[in-house]
Amino acid sequence: MRVIELASRKIILNMNERLVLAMLTALYDIKNSVSTSLNPEFKDIHNKIRRHVAEQNKNWNKPKYPCYQGYERIKWHGMRNTERRMENYGLYKHLKKDWRVLDIGCNMGFVSLEAARFVKSVDGLDINPYLMGVAKDTADFLGIKNANFFTTEFEKFHADNKYDAIFSFANHETGDGLTASSIEGYFKKVCECLKQDGLVFFESHNIDHENWAELNKALTKFFDQMEEKTLPKENALMKGRVFRVLKKKG
User: Fold this and answer.
1) CA dihedral of 226, 230, 234, 236, whole degrees rounded to 10
2) pLDDT tier at 7 (50, 70, 90 boundaries)?
3) Could you tell me which of 170, 134, 164 has the C-alpha nearest to residue 151?
4) String of DSSP letters for the chain
5) What is the pLDDT of residues 189-245, one digit of tens each?
6) CB 55 within 8 A of CB 130
7) In whole angstroms, what is the distance from residue 246 CA to residue 224 CA?
8) Could you give the CA distance from residue 204 to residue 239 in angstroms, rounded to a whole number?
9) Rounded to whole angstroms, how far apart are CA atoms 221 and 74?
10) What backbone phi and psi angles, to 5 degrees, belong to 14?
11) pLDDT per residue as tens digits for the range 77-95
C-alpha cells in the first residue's frame, strides 16, 4: 500500500507540474505577443523563435521546453529571465575576458550569449536542434561572434581544448531519461573538460528532487567547493535550488 501511495503522489505531482507548465506557457505566449507589438525592432527575431518553437512542438518527440528562457536584451519573456539568473548566480563578478566557457544543456542559448559578452568564447550544447536554431538566430541578430552552438549530447561531445569554466545548470540528471551517464560519470567528464584549477558553476534541481548523497559524493570526489547559496524562487516550478561554485581538484 505504501508503494501505491507514493506512486499516486508522484502521478499527482507530475499532473500538477504539467498543468502549471501549460499555464505558464500560455502566459508567456501572451506576454511575448504584447512585447512584439511594443518592440517592433525585435519582430524578426521573435518570429524566428516562434517558428523554431512551433517546429519543436510538431516534430520533437522528447520533452519540450517552450517558455523556459527569457532574455531582456531581445525583449523575450520566459520562466527564467537570463539577466536575473546571471545576477542571482553572481556570474557577472566571476567571468573573465580570457576565459573559454562550456555551457552544458544550454536550452535556447541565452545564458551562453549573455556570458559571451564578458569572456573570450562560449560553446553551448543541447540535444534539441530547434533550441539550437533559436540560439544561432539570436546570436546572428545580436551580432555575437564568439558563441558557438552544437546539437549533441554532452556524453558524445569531444572538447578539442580544455575550458576555464563550465556551466552545469540542472543538467547532471535531467529526469527525462535522456542522460546516458551516471551522476559520477557526468562529473568525471566535466572534470576532464576543465583546465587545471578550472571552475564549475553548478545549479541543482529543486532540493526535494535531488539524490543528495549520490550528488555530493560525486562532487566532492572531483571538486573543492568555493561558494554555496540557495537561489530565490523564480516561479511555481523553479524553487528551492542550490547554486555552487566548484574548483577542480589539483
Assistant:
1) 140
2) very low
3) 134
4) -HHHHHHHHHHHHHHHHHHHHHHHHHHHHHHHHHHHHH-GGGHHHHHHHHHHHHHHHHH--S---TT-EEBGGGTB--SEEHHHHHHHHTHHHH--TT-EEEEET-TTSHHHHHHHTTSSEEEEEES-HHHHHHHHHHHHHHT--SEEEEES-GGG---SS-EEEEEEES-SS-SSS---S-HHHHHHHHHHHEEEEEEEEEE-S-GGG--HHHHHHHHHHHEEEEEEEEPPP-SSSS-S-EEEEEEE--
5) 999 999 999 999 999 999 988 989 999 999 999 999 999 999 998 888 877 899 999
6) yes
7) 6
8) 10
9) 40
10) -65, -40
11) 999 999 999 999 999 999 9
**Average pLDDT in the 51-60 region?**
95
> Residue 15 — very low, low, confident or very high, per pLDDT cuts 50/70/90?
low
Residue carrying C-alpha cell 520566459: 78
pTM for this model (two decimals): 0.90
Count, residues in the chain: 250
Q: Cα separation of 198 and 118, whole Å?
A: 17
> For the chain, what is the radius of gyration of the CA atoms?
18
Q: How far, in Å, CA of 8 to CA of 5, rounded?
A: 5
Which contacts qualify for 151-157: CB closer than 8 Å, 24 or more apart? Answer: 151/126, 151/127, 152/125, 152/127, 153/125, 153/127, 153/178, 153/180, 154/104, 154/105, 154/125, 154/186, 154/189, 155/179, 155/180, 155/181, 155/186, 155/189, 157/125
Confidence class of residue 63 from pLDDT cuts 50, 70 and 90?
confident
